[in-house]
Specification:
Elements (H helix, E strand, L loop, with lengths): L1 E4 L4 E4 L4 H88 L12 E5 L5 E5 L5 E3 L4 E8 L5 E6 L4 E7 L10 E2 L4 E4 L6 E8 L2 E3 L10
Antiparallel strand pairs: 1-2, 3-4, 4-11, 5-10, 6-7, 6-9, 7-8, 8-11, 11-12
Length: 223
């Protein structure tokens, strides 16, 4: 390499040794190596990210499938719950209807004779209805219940008491032969006496919670 010395005005020559050439070459090589390492690292990261993305996509697909299965199962359970609820409601309604029917059957509202009769009320502390039936008809239970007692009556020959299980008791006083016995479960319309020529009159009373009430408050004159 030639250059001019400004002080002396002479041309001088400078040579570049082999070591001076080696240094830039080493730098270039180092840069190439670094770039190669960077590219390799980037490729590895890209491959790793690609694998992670694929795994996440597979996981998402599996979760979506599981979610669909759960949604189907939830709908199936909801349908079963709806069917069960309807069944329970129907059963409750049926039970309530049966209970109402039974409660109605135990209410002493029935007419205590199997035929029409003349009627006379007796007021007082122990109100009574006196009914005169026709021969061949029957004295019948006014409602479902249990015969709680059969005792001798001071005015009539027999006195039958029926407990209806709801606070109500009906009392039947008649001179005829008793057709039931204590402890018998009777239904509405069960025959208690058969009315003959000598026992056409029935003394009929009702108590609620052991207190006498007016039978006309409950009795159904139409039967």
């Amino acid at each position: 390499m030639l250059f001019v010395d400004s002080k002396e005005g002479r041309i001088r020559q400078m040579g570049i040794g082999p070591r001076a050439v080696e240094i830039p070459a080493l730098i270039v090589i180092a840069v190439i190596v670094v770039l190669a390492l960077i590219c390799r690292s980037d490729r590895e990261q890209i491959a790793q990210l690609t694998a992670q993305t694929q795994a996440q996509q597979e996981n998402i697909a599996q979760l979506q499938e599981e979610n669909e299965d759960l949604a189907s199962l939830r709908q199936e359970l909801a349908d079963k719950v709806l069917i069960l609820s309807d069944t329970i409601n129907q059963k409750v309604e049926q039970e309530e209807a049966v209970e109402q029917e039974q409660a109605q059957a135990h209410m002493p509202i029935g007419f205590p004779l199997s035929s029409s009769a003349s009627l006379e009320t007796v007021e007082g502390d122990e109100p009574m209805v006196k009914l005169t039936g026709s021969e061949g008809s029957s004295v019948i239970a006014a409602a479902d219940g249990t015969v709680s007692s059969i005792i001798t009556d001071s005015q009539y020959l027999h006195c039958i008491k029926i407990d209806h299980g709801n606070g109500y008791t009906t009392i039947y006083r008649n001179d005829g032969d008793v057709m039931v016995k204590e402890g018998d479960a009777v239904v509405k319309g069960a025959i208690l006496y058969v009315i003959g020529e000598d026992n056409t009159e029935l003394g009929y009373q009702i108590t609620y919670e052991e207190k006498y009430i007016d039978p006309m408050e409950l009795i159904n004159i139409d039967g």
